[in-house]
Amino acid sequence: MPNPLTGDPKSHDVSEFKDSITGHCLCGSITVTIRDPTLFDGRHGHICHCANCRKVSGSFAAPNLAIEKDKVTIEDKNRTLKVYEDYETMSGNVVRRAFCSNCGSPVRSETPMYDGQGKLVIKMGMFPRIPTPEFETFADHRHPWQGKHEGVTQFKIARGGPTL
Ligand SMILES: [Zn+2]
Ligand SMILES: [Zn+2]
In this protein, which residues make up the domain named CENP-V/GFA (predicted)? Predict the structure, then answer.
């Protein structure tokens, strides 16, 4: 039996998410809902190639979405959400990385920079469909075999800095 969570993103029309989109961690303990009717209009979110995002995601890059906290609801029914305080950051600011302590799925990141804007970062891998990203960070640290995403701005390091 295929796991129903192993879905083809294309099997979900974006019209399904016109009010909100909901995702779960791998074990289902943590549910995240994003309420943003514009999420699939245009480009939203970014792909980060920094070493910390690669470790956290277990991948060559991580799909992230910085979004207003009041648009996000996180349910933690089995109380498995755990926070790792990451001090090994370029900015020197602590990044509070939350993940499911049962299954290991990354859930969200919070930093003083985003706190000031009333935002947090949602790790998008748990959602049935991910919006077309707007930009990449740490694009200078891409692996040479990675393809290029058309129309996605590649910041060498941080957003707003020099681009590739
Ligand atoms: Zn879990
Ligand atoms: Zn990163």
Answer: 21-146
What is the mean pLDDT of the segment spanning 110-127? 95
Order of all β-strands in the sheet with 81-86: 81-86, 95-100, 106-110, 119-123, 62-68, 46-48, 135-137, 153-154
Half-sphere exposure of 98 (CA within 13 A, CB side): 20
CA of 164 to the centre of ligand 1 (A): 36
Taking the centre of ligand 2 as the mean of its atom positions, its distance from the CA of residue 141, in whole angstroms, is 10
Strands 135-137 and 46-48: parallel
pLDDT tens by residue, 50-76: 999 999 999 999 999 999 999 999 999
Fold exhibited by the domain 43-154:
glutathione-dependent formaldehyde- activating enzyme (gfa) (3.90.1590)
Measure 76 CA to ligand 1 centroid, in angstroms.
9
- Asked if residue 40 has pLDDT above 90, the reply is yes
Apex 11 CA angle, 70 and 105, nearest 5:
50
Q: Which ligand is nearest to the CA of 138?
A: 2
Q: Does pLDDT of 4 surpass 80?
A: no
Task: Please give the distance, rounded to the nearest whole angstrom, from the Cα atom of residue 1 to the centre of ligand 2.
Answer: 35
